[in-house]
Amino acid sequence: MFMARNDRGPDRNEQGGARPRRTVFGRLFYWGAVLAVWGLIFAVVFLAVFARDLPDTSSLYEVDRQPSITYLDRSGALIAVRGTQMAPPVDLDALPDYVPAAFVAIEDRRFYHHPGFDPIGMSRAMASNLRAGRVVQGGSTITQQLAKNLFLTPDQNMKRKVQELILAVWLEMKFSKKEILALYLNRVYFGAGAYGIESASQRYFDKSADKLTVGEAALLAGLLKAPSRYSPVSESERAATRANVVLNEMVEVGAITPAQREAAVAEPVRVSKTLASQHAQYFIDWLDKQIRTLVGEPTEDMVVETTLDLTLQTDAERAVRRILDRDKGKGVEQAALVALDGDGRVRAMIGGASYGDSQFNRAVDARRQAGSAWKPFVYLAAVEAGYTPQTPVVDQPVTIGGWSPRNYSGNFSGQMTLAQAVAQSTNTVAAYVADQVGRDSVARAARRLGISSEIGLQPSMALGAVEVSPLEMAQAYDAFANGGRRVDAYGISRIRTPSGRVIYTHGPSEGGQAINNPPLYYMNQMLRGVVTSGSGRSAAIGGRDIAGKTGTTSDYKDAWFVGYTGGFVAAVWVGKDDNKPMARVTGGAAPAAIWRGFMEAALPKLAVQAIPNGPPLPEGWIPPDPVGDLMGQVEDPYATATPYDAPPPVIIDGQAQQPVQPQPAPAARPAPPQTPPAPQQERRPDALFF
């Protein structure tokens, strides 16, 4: 009996012949097929896992954006659009060929040759990132970017990247290359709230996209890498460098010729730093903060009808720019201007030399010492206590609580009238009068007219050692211009939806009468004298009833002019942000020049009248002589070449300082004639701030 052999020898087929061995090619084919099957299975499972929660592509044409706020001036002209701005889709055929070519050149050179993703670009980006040890280059195609922008969150993870690839292939299967590029250009974010090329063109260049130049197209294409980093508004040099890179890429891919590139480089790109223009962006910032308080967080598009007059705003911008350019050698670096009508409507606002360079609003948020522009509050308290423009006063050395104020000229003029002291901006008289009527009375007068900043009650307060904003000063002086009524400055007349539903309307002013007569009459007469015969003569405008007051701090860090006519007031400040002194710039110089330049352009456009007298004057009251007679021979307070600084003020700390009689006193101060101040009762100790 034989046992069967395990070794059967060579393989044989059923006919008994030997089975042939597979060739090398056969084996490769076999195992390739096996791997392909398993790869296909893996790919199907892989895609199924990641495609399971793909977003709904039916939202392709829906736009998810934040509400926009459109700001109109008082006549309905567009000032600005804040928030998300969308424009109607642009037709790709309507654009110059170099516009879409700029985006293809810098974002996706092989756009017309890949199926939605670019393996070459992805490999190159991966190699660059590995060499750098960080992400320095992206490999996403325009189609992938569109998929991400339309459907996905900005999360950076493997799942999102795979979904991006799936959606990119889907887009390529569903749309033509031309349609994908059109969708991309109409939906991509360009910064500054602008979505889509038409919106970006309007936002940055104030023109439609079909009128873009080669340089402008390159600048917009360069933005997409990082809209804030390459913003032509805040990063102009970096944006220009990036635009040059785009131009070079366009030449390399044949989108433009070298000659076109050179022409684009030679032609400056004029960038509007905000939508349509630079106008009134400080003003818009001021309102933007208020809207949330008035109507809450916007949930729908809104239209804000403002009090601003764009024509006057342009006049203000030109006046400020002209003097800043003229006096930059004197250290005049910044300026602010606020103009109000008699009801407190803000008609123009300048918050600084350049909104593009600095968005800090000096008209509203800066607090600078008022200098002699504060003195009207001193003299208002005085005339309300019984002084008149004819009251004799003496310009002589005076010491109050150890503090001795000195005049700008360094001289003392002796006896004069109160009106002359106002026009001549005499410091010794203002300090003495404030101490006599009570610095708390001065603070109350300023509060009543609209000063809301902290007011110190130290003796130097009388000379403007109080930090205020130009908006506050314009608001307070408005009472002199409108017949004595207190106003609260405002810039929003109405807020509505685009369909017309009213959300908010500004109500009537509740300020009431802040200055009665005859004090108002006296103040207007004396402040007219500042312009006709005193420190504000450079602000005079022929044929106009003008009044106002200059202000200069002793170290030339701040200079002011606040002036008005009937129902219209403007406050102007100049100085430096670092609070360093200017080169002997006074309130009668740069600020008065800005004020006059603005008013000369603005007043012909306004139906202004003479400064109103205000409430009825007391029966039987006889007005004083015309202001010119009251002034007499007023000395120019800025005639002396070299002023000297006053010593640091002594701050009182809870105990009211009794007035110290001047030592030595050349003559006793005469009491005000006819209508002396009411006898003062012993005053309570002043608090440090009022």
From TrEMBL:
Keyword hit for NADP: no
InterPro entries per UniProt: Beta-lactam/transpept-like (IPR012338), Glyco_trans_51 (IPR001264), Glycosyltr_51/Transpeptidase (IPR050396), Lysozyme-like_dom_sf (IPR023346), PBP_transglycosylase (IPR036950), PCN-bd_Tpept (IPR001460)
Protein name: Penicillin-binding protein
Region of interest (Disordered), ranges: 638-690
Penicillin-binding protein transpeptidase domain location: 338-599
Signal sequence bounds: none
NCBIfam families: PBP_1a_fam
Superkingdom of source: Bacteria
Compositional bias of kind Pro residues: 661-679
UniProt keyword Kinase present: no
Similarity section: In the N-terminal section; belongs to the glycosyltransferase 51 family. In the C-terminal section; belongs to the transpeptidase family.
Any one annotated GO CC term: outer membrane-bounded periplasmic space
UniProt record, GO biological process: cell wall organization; peptidoglycan biosynthetic process; proteolysis; regulation of cell shape
Residues that span the membrane, as ranges: 28-51
Keywords: Carboxypeptidase, Cell shape, Cell wall biogenesis/degradation, Glycosyltransferase, Hydrolase, Membrane, Multifunctional enzyme, Peptidoglycan synthesis, Protease, Transferase, Transmembrane, Transmembrane helix
Domain Glycosyl transferase family as annotated: residue spans: 84-250
Known catalytic reactions: Preferential cleavage: (Ac)2-L-Lys-D-Ala-|-D-Ala. Also transpeptidation of peptidyl-alanyl moieties that are N-acyl substituents of D-alanine; [GlcNAc-(1->4)-Mur2Ac(oyl-L-Ala-gamma-D-Glu-L-Lys-D-Ala-D-Ala)](n)-di-trans,octa-cis-undecaprenyl diphosphate + beta-D-GlcNAc-(1->4)-Mur2Ac(oyl-L-Ala-gamma-D-Glu-L-Lys-D-Ala-D-Ala)-di-trans,octa-cis-undecaprenyl diphosphate = [GlcNAc-(1->4)-Mur2Ac(oyl-L-Ala-gamma-D-Glu-L-Lys-D-Ala-D-Ala)](n+1)-di-trans,octa-cis-undecaprenyl diphosphate + di-trans,octa-cis-undecaprenyl diphosphate + H(+)
UniProt pathway: Cell wall biogenesis; peptidoglycan biosynthesis
Compositional bias ranges of the Basic and acidic residues kind: 681-690
MF GO annotations: penicillin binding; peptidoglycan glycosyltransferase activity; serine-type D-Ala-D-Ala carboxypeptidase activity
